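Pasting as-is:
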Amino acid sequence: MGREALESRHIARRARRCNPSTEGAGGYEEVLFDDDLESEWRKRQVVLLSNLHHPRSLCEAEMAVSTASKNADLEVTFTTAEYSWRWEVVSPGGRLASKLLSTHLITPLISFTALSASASEPLRDMSSYTLARSADAQAKTAKRSTGRQTVGCFSKPMVSTAIQRITQVIDGEADPGKLAKSARFCVSLLVLI
């Protein structure tokens, strides 16, 4: 899905639609006639929107996803006690969509999986500094040579068999495969199959 970019006037219109007026005069209901006040109000909306998309706020926000939008392929609504926002997303087409998914979802997930599988200690026990440095190193490796990182990540028996098992459980198989922690165990599983 493509990203939606909005100009100030569109942000103001959507903020007014998503947030019914509770502030009275100068609130969400009507456009302010004083250009300076309207400009300040719009800047405040951008700050509220930015705060809503902060990871801590997203954890607390209620999220609703709908494909029943008249204006977009997908509609995502975030709601907190203070603010509500709706993103209307349109599909950018095959080639761009695959590039966006690869760059912003698949490659980061592969990098995180590689980081998790190769870490010398559990991620929850790492300091923020060490985890950030490790994540940065994985990102730089992914940027330089995505293919090598992907092959390296999925060639780890623990990762490949875990993904296989997760897929089997999602597909509803009654007896999902075992997890392999070493290449020897992985080869013995293949011989048994």
